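User: I'm writing a short methods note and want a consistent example. For S53 family peptidase, I'll paste the sequence; you return only the structure tokens, no commentary, since I'll be parsing the reply automatically.
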Amino acid sequence: MRKRVLGVSLAVVATVVAALGGTGAAYAAPPPDSPIPNSTPGWLSHGSKVGPASGAVSARVYLAPQGGMDALSALATAVSTPGSAQYRQFLSADQYHAKFDATQSTVDAVTGWLQGAGLKTTVGASHRYIDVTGGVGNANKAFGVTISTYTHDGLTVQAPDGAATTPAALAGTVIAVDGLDTTPSYVDPKTQKPAPPDAGFRNPPICGKTYGSATPQNLPTPDGTLLPKFDGSSLPYSPCGYTGPQLRNAYEAGLTGGFDGKGVTVAITDAYVSPTLEADANRYASDNGDQPFAPGQFSENLPNAFTNVNSTKSGHQCSMPGWYGEQTLDVEAVHAMAPAANIRYYGAKSCLDADLLDTFTQINDENVASIVTNSWGGVGDVVKPALFLAYETAFLQGATQGISYVFSSGDAGDEAAAVGSPQTDYPASDPFVTAVGGTSTAITDAGVTGETGWQTSKYVLKGGAWTLSTSFLYGGGGGYSSNIPEPAYQTAAGISSPNGGRAVPDVSMDGDPTTGMLVGQTQTFTGKAAYDTYRIGGTSLASPLFAGITALKIQANGGTGLGLLNPVIYSTHGKGMHDVTGADIDKGAIRVDYVNGVDATGGYTYSVRTFNGATTTLTVGAGWDTETGWGSPRAGWVQ
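Assistant:
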């Protein structure tokens, strides 16, 4: 595997010549220290140095798998690639640890180096990492850096002045170090709830039970507002939100064999946990024509305590209640697509990268889940890359054990509006996960009757006409990674990456909030907790929908996990996917909202949300494309 390493300059060490007793004797200088991948802070070029750092250092040093990353990625690729002699010959968790855990001699050597610099060490389970604490001077000595205080992007942090290093004798033993740079490394949920994430919200009943069933002609606006045509077309109201039976009828129509996910466990990862998660999912299922969870069908794996529960730094959604809607959507979407599948929810103790990484450790080591859906990620794939190889090690372990990892591709299109240049989001852009993009999807009683890539512009009423308000409001993430190479399975499938980067997404499902899912959640209304429903979208919806229908595929495979899905998806050019081209759907839909987000006392607001109307670098068309990948799965994906 080609590793992503930031540019690091090593000083050239000259040979030292000394004259002793008139005789010239040349002595080779010791070999230079070895840089730790991606350990130079990415913001360093625009940060400002304030002065010396005085605080203590608390860091985590991640150890390379035994044999190195190349050996691990080679096995993960072999067991995932059709035609390989090792195809789907997966390891157990115990076999993985015996083969790839760092050896005791490696642990001893690394701890000896760190302790020799005066740092205290604690070795993590299965030799994955070593936690270190100590003074700044001790860390400077150990890692060959100068840690100082800096300001950048509105933050004051302490960080090293360049790449951290190990002694040359330990080259390759450390794949990542987290904590020398104290810049918070948050991830965000990829939901698009039309309200502050911890506030109550309801949809007005001016919407269709199915796509197109409600229009201004057959359901006049409650306040008498006249809604004009949009670009010469009469548009429908948005659906009220699709339910489980509707989603199954749309994506699983024609499926034979009675597959419902029975015997398969789907893992869900998020930060924190809603105290009403299972109860809300049970009520939602019962109210919308599905069965609630049977005893033991839903379970949780939670830490002893949560941290950073009220953090909203740098605009990141890291308050505990801000994640409740994401969790609710994930559980209810998986249950909608695979009503008999087991769901195991893994709640990280915070929204920090390192804590989400810990959930993957638990999933892989428990080895009870066959597929993992993750509806969160960072903004852009060049932000805080220090943990890239630590993340990838977790995905590779999963692949060797037959566990499939799927991620939401993001809700900011090509990210150009957010970060200034086209980028993909990480971890969705990792080559060892399946990235799920978003579509705008018309679902009627007949199933899916229209579908296109999700890239939305917003129009509002002004002077009796629809007027452009936001040229790009939101859209499914996609494009080409700026720093992760295109994997072989994409090259072999003829994907032409203009910059040589990993292409995203791989597949897609409904993600547009205008055509989103109806969910039921206990929310806070005027200071009181109450259950209610609302429509929600984002690739946070697409990922659990895909995990749910793939649980049926795993069931059809005899209940045995499938591992990394991408080699199969690309080698068959998306077999079982509906190729989304966007030629069979309206220009958009009319969305009606309460002004106050809760009830009609403040009146109504009207907008048109376009379908694939925003102009970005992403496109939709025949075959693989940057908005929808190979398209959305149907019954043929399962069987």
